[in-house]
Specification:
By secondary structure, chain A is an alpha+beta fold. Chain A is 57% helix and 7% strand. Classes of the chains: A alpha+beta (238), B alpha+beta (218).
Chain lengths: 238, 218
């Protein structure tokens, strides 16, 4: 494992984000979990700052973490950077096999839950049906993993009562999934067939450093409804 | 733990399996290779990787690890000699960022180009070239992404040096123009001449035949 000097941890930490972005929220959770002070810069989706465009010229997206003047993009890359630079409250285990399992599940969540959810939100008709089906299948696997790993003593995938990498990566579902369902006009959450997942979501929402960060549903619904209309309107006019 | 037996489930033409082969060989780790039939998946594969049902799968003692870049990092962390990822967290972040970029913006688009026809193919090839433009800037002035020795990013992008030219030939497309991308071309050459990489590649003729058939079937 790479070590980093105390000097590396010094220096300003800045996070460029959007209030409504689940990817930005992940990074905030990682920073708050470790008690790292940071300056948050709210970007304008319709008018991206020069700082954002020069810090992330490849994707031009948030989140971007800027530490000691060095920019890092992509939420999962940022979280591992945070974990490797600040050693307190580890997000990933030290054990290589535990780390491999966590990375595997993070990748699965992104491919089979996050991506289909995003695509279902911004599509309609047959295309949306296809994505909703993929999402439901992804959720089934997540429920299976939750059933296998979680119980009354182990509330989170991070182990024990502490959140970890997988919880932070999956965490967006506890707040945004209902919004996506409402705006997209479909249903994937089902407490009857996903009891362990719903227990996990309820516990995650209550984590002291997570709870205050969760945006009210009405605010998210209003915003994403506008984005969805905008996106689908553009597609129809082409 | 490091002394426990290592097995690798792979497929002879899979660039993902080769990432793991290169990592194991660079670190001098003994392993048993098990060839999988991709269209006739063995009960072993389905049992070990029920989620994705894909190779590569690494078996280390009683541990099972899937997904090539997860496996390569696992190997790097379990056998820390000859490190593949850089030491400094920022450089590690850059390696991970560019590995992800190349996977989504180059590998996926180049594969799309191979499987598509006509305008779709042209569009995919164009997107792939735009991705190479970015990679060219990263590798400029470097012998290898890892510096003087092969590193994580060289391993993750290594398919570009051998699989991509095959896909270009089979798909009648040009993505890597050596005049437009001299640094990338030079890096490809350096990689292919490295004994661990150069001596561990599938036979080119067999690859051409395989991808010709695959691109028709898809």
């Amino acid at each position: 494992m790479a070590s980093s000097s105390v000097a590396d941890q010094e220096g300003q930490v800045m996070l460029l984000g959007f209030w409504f972005s689940p990817f930005v929220k992940r990074v905030e959770w990682a920073l708050k979990f470790k008690g790292i002070e940071y300056d948050y810069v709210e970007e304008d989706l319709t008018n991206k700052s020069t700082l954002l465009l020069t810090s992330n010229p490849i994707h031009k997206k948030v989140p971007v973490l800027i530490h000691n003047g060095n920019p890092i993009a992509e939420s999962l890359v940022i979280i591992e950077y945070i974990d490797e630079t600040w050693k307190q409250n580890p997000i990933l285990s030290q054990d290589p096999y535990e780390r491999a399992m966590a990375r595997f599940w993070a990748n699965f969540i992104e491919q089979k839950v996050t991506e289909p959810a995003r695509e279902a939100l911004f599509s309609k008709g047959e295309q949306q049906e296809k994505k909703v089906k993929e999402l439901k299948e992804g959720m089934e696997v997540v429920e299976g993993e939750a059933k296998a790993k979680l119980n009354d003593k182990t509330l989170f995938f991070g182990g024990g009562n502490g959140v970890g990498y997988v919880d932070i990566v999956l965490g967006w579902t506890c707040n945004w999934m209902e919004t996506i369902e409402e705006v997209g006009g479909f249903k994937v959450l089902d407490p009857e067939s996903q009891p362990q997942f719903h227990k996990w979501m309820a516990n995650f929402r209550e984590v002291p450093f997570i709870k205050p960060t969760l945006e009210p549903k009405e605010k998210l619904v209003e915003f994403f409804r506008m984005i969805r209309q905008d996106r689908l309107g553009l597609v129809a006019n082409k | 733990m490091a002394a426990q037996k290592v097995k690798l489930l792979g497929f002879w033409v899979s660039p993902f399996a080769y990432r793991v082969i290169w990592a194991l060989k660079l670190k001098g780790i003994d392993y048993e290779y098990i060839e999988e039939g991709i269209f006739n998946k063995s009960p072993l594969l389905l049992q070990l990787n029920p989620i994705h049902k894909k190779v590569p799968v690494l078996i280390h003692g009683d541990r099972v690890i899937c997904e090539s870049y997860v496996i390569v990092q696992y190997i790097d962390e379990t056998w820390p000699h000859c490190p593949l990822l850089p030491q400094h967290p920022y450089e590690r972040a850059m390696a991970r960022f560019w590995a992800d970029f190349a996977e989504t913006k180059l590998l996926d688009t180049a594969w799309l180009g191979l499987c598509a026809r006509g305008a779709e193919r042209e569009k995919a090839a164009k997107l792939a070239m735009e991705a190479v433009e970015k990679i060219e800037e990263v590798v400029k002035g470097k012998k290898l992404f890892g510096g003087e020795s092969i590193g994580y990013l060289d391993i993750c992008l290594g398919w570009i040096s051998y699989w991509l030219p095959v896909w270009e030939e089979v798909g009648s497309m040009q993505i890597i123009d050596p005049i437009k991308f001299p640094a990338t071309s030079s890096w490809m050459n350096t990689l292919l001449h490295h004994p661990v990489i150069g001596d561990n590649l599938p036979a080119r003729d067999a690859m051409i035949e395989y991808f010709q058939k695959r691109s028709k079937d898809i």
